[in-house]
Design goal:
By secondary structure, this protein is an alpha/beta fold. About 40% of the residues lie in helices and about 15% in strands.
């Protein structure tokens, strides 16, 4: 498929992405070493909400191997224009059960599983597709009413229920902590998540490999790595401030 040439704005954004990529990778590596791990132990997932496919493809050319979209409709609109070979696409936003079928054949991981009902719908869709789906269980670590995710005390039950469903592989946990004024405060939430992650790993269920703790975004990914994150979801620090379409 012939691609359209980049606009001037896209070329400027791509140039900034190249610099941001180097800076983020360096900061991630330093944080990983400070946490007693290797840089390769932490995966950078690019949060690509509102980012043009052409700019995402530029990041893929730099070495990006994981990207995440928040909205099903936006992912579907971009999908055919992405350079997808060698790239894992994740759904990282809240997912409604009636939209699962639209992305069951397009993503490798759904990070926002927060109910048995959603997990069951993903399982049904994947059975029809004949493919497995990796999932993360989303935990509302701060107990915020406006955020999705399950309460920490409900995690073990949802884990047991989800891992029993056909065509699903529970790979770990995801969270978005409350907005905090200090690094000390946010690290407390990340530390709590890491303990939940270790508790789930300790269950040692058959045929289940828990290896992903997805936490930390542009404003706090270094703190998340210091507290044990294996994946960070970085958007604006890589692509610049998001540009939302004007309301009609």
């Amino acid at each position: 498929m012939m691609e359209n040439p980049l606009t001037e704005a896209q070329m400027r954004q791509c140039a900034a992405v190249s610099e941001n990529w180097k800076n983020i990778r360096a900061r991630m590596a330093e944080a990983a070493l400070r946490s007693g791990r290797q840089p390769s132990d932490v995966t950078l997932l690019a949060a690509t909400k509102t980012v043009d496919p052409e700019v995402i493809n530029h990041a893929i050319g730099l070495g990006l191997t994981h990207m995440g979209e928040n909205r099903v409709q936006e992912l579907c609109a971009k999908y055919d224009r992405l350079h997808r070979e060698g790239v894992d696409i994740h759904l990282i936003g809240h997912l409604q059960t009636n939209k699962v079928r639209q992305i069951a054949d397009k993503v490798s991981t759904i990070q926002s599983v927060d109910s048995l009902r959603l997990a069951q719908e993903i399982s049904r869709a994947c059975q029809k597709q004949g493919r497995r789906m990796d999932v993360l269980l989303e935990v509302n670590i701060g107990g915020e009413a406006q955020k999705s995710g399950i309460a920490p005390e409900a995690l073990e039950e949802l884990y047991d229920q989800t891992m029993a469903l056909p065509m699903l592989r529970v790979r770990g946990l995801m969270t978005i902590p409350p907005v905090c004024d200090t690094e000390t405060q946010v690290r407390k939430y990340f530390s709590q998540m890491h303990q939940l992650f270790l508790d789930i790993q300790a269950k040692k269920s058959d045929n289940v490999y828990i290896d992903c703790l997805s936490m930390g975004m542009s404003q706090d990914y270094e703190a998340a790595i210091l507290e044990g994150a294996t994946m960070v979801r970085v958007g604006s620090s890589l692509f610049g401030a998001r540009s939302y379409p004007a309301a009609k």
